[in-house]
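Service request form, structural biology core

Requester: graduate student, group of Dr. S.
Request type: structure prediction, single chain
Budget code: on file
Notes: please return the result as structure tokens.

Sequence provided:
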Amino acid sequence: MGRGTALITGSSSGIGEAFARLLAREGFDLVLTARREEKLLNLTKELTGVRADVIAADLSHPEGIEKLLLTIDEKKLDINLAINNAGMMVEKPLHRLTNQEIDNILALNISAIVKITRHLIEKMARRGHGRILNVASVAAFHPFPGMDIYSATKAFVLSLSESLAENHRSQGIFVTALCPGITDTEMAEKNIIDSVPNFMIARPEQVAREGYDAVMGREVVRISGLANRLALGLAKHQPRSLIRKLSGLATRFVSR
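Core staff response, request fulfilled:
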């Protein structure tokens, strides 16, 4: 017997692809969405024993978000588990971003998650069960100068997820925020990967497994990776002014 149907955004590569492979092994039917339809179709050929629907959509634009939600309704797909994974990391300070870049980041990192969650959580509430996992970041906990807007969007995702978890627990809906650190994906900047120790770099498969265990275990927040948990545990006891300065120094070091 299947586990239900899982929606995974940004599932053409990286953590999203890892989630798709993991959930297929766990017996979930899948709804896969990303911009690159060919990569999604190629992925479905490797997934056996489950149904996999592909919806090509660019969630960094409002019309892409609308297309995804309309297609889910038209196909009458009941989503039991939603994984809001799609996101965009930009290593530029705010004043160096164009208005179009800002719109795209906010649409993908914030609007897509809000609109998808709102659309699905109503249906989950009527059924009396459901799970939602929102991929935030360790950057959600502290400012990262040089990645101003990215860190701010992930702080939004973390706060939203924690609020929703409390609001909907009594309805049988469990919401989790997954907070990975540096992960070896297409989105990760090569200079970051090259400038940190290997033990600080996670594989997408590791992050996906932690996220899955967390959402199925009804955890509200999961910081992925022991090193990240230790670092954030230490940082929360330090003055925020010190953390800002250290983050700024680290950003400048990596940029060089």
